[in-house]
Amino acid sequence: MFEDLVEEYGIFGLFISAFISSTLAPGGSEAVLVYLVSEDLNTPLYLVLVATLGNTLGALTTYYVGYVASLTESSKKLNKKYFDKARGFIQQYGSISLLFSWLPIIGDVLCLAAGWVRLNLLMSICFITLGKFARYYLLSLTVS
Fold first, then answer.
1. What whole-number percentage of the chain has pLDDT above 70?
2. Cα distances (angstroms) measured from residue 90 to each of 37, 69, 74
3. Which candidate, 31, 67, 126, 131, has a CA 20 to 30 Å from the CA of 98?
4. Under a CB-based contact definition with an 8 Å cutoff, are residues 102 and 55 in contact?
5. Mind listing the pLDDT tens digit for each residue in 78-125?
6. How confident is the model at residue 6 (pLDDT cuts 50, 70, 90)?
7. 22 backbone dihedrals φ, ψ, rounded to 5°
8. Residues 6 or more apart from 96 whose CB is under 8 A from it?
């Protein structure tokens, strides 16, 4: 079933899976990437770039949600366990902490906190992209 869906949607499916995986919703873009790399239908670098783009845009969506929420909501409504830790990490290390935005759960919260504290958008994009690219690239190397 999984293989049928991936084959039907291919590159677009990888992009959508990567996008969703990088928002506050759960996803499994790594499995899609591994499958597509193992099928050898496209170059691994192309697949890594597609996944990185989708995942980065998803992270920027979460950044934007954090930015908008900071204007309208109190941080008391957020999950204190993750948000306070992420916000402290962001405030201590700045944009470079977004290299870890690929981590499960906490990575999404890092992006949310980055938007909340209004980290420099250009620097945030650079570090988010670099971290996500490195993760997907290393993952692709394990398959090919």
1. 84
2. 34, 17, 18
3. 31
4. yes
5. 656 667 777 788 888 999 999 999 988 788 889 988 998 899 999 999
6. low
7. -100, 5
8. 127
Whether 15 and 6 have beta carbons less than 8 Å apart is answered as no
pLDDT score of 1? 41
What gap in Å lies between CA 48 and CA 102, rounded to an integer? 14
CA angle 52-20-18, nearest 5°? 25
Query: Which sequence spans correspond to the domains of the chain?
Result: 2-143
- Where would I find the H helices in the chain? 2-21, 29-39, 44-72, 80-93, 106-116, 121-143
Output the pTM of the full model.
Answer: 0.85
**CA 56-27-131 angle, 5° bins:** 30
